[in-house]
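DoxX family protein structure dump, as promised
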Amino acid sequence: MAWGLLIIRVIVGLTLIGHGTQKWFGWFGGYGLKATGGWLHSINVKPGLFMAFLIGLAEIVGGLLFVLGWGLPYGAALIVIIMLGAIITVHGKNGWMKANGFEYNLILIAIAIGLALIGPGIYTL
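structure tokens r here:
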């Protein structure tokens, strides 16, 4: 069981860190802070640049807490908040299992809440 929890934490956490670095630095095919901020502003998430910074920060910190297992409930809370925001602002209107739908966000919410309830396992800091 401990290895399974570690695998889930590391893969989910690194994926969120990757999404945060897409927003901040444009890594992994992302657009960087300025372009992400402009896009957020265009969908009425204002102030766009500041929100891009906060969302990227929450993804990086939440992902890091998830990977390390230290402060897992806080990392999980950040993930849930980010994914709910993504559903409300972008993906919810597209439905479930449709193009650009909210199923990915929902899976991450389920994983975050599930691990927060189970705990990080023995392989943590």
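The mean pLDDT is 96.
lmk if u need the other ones
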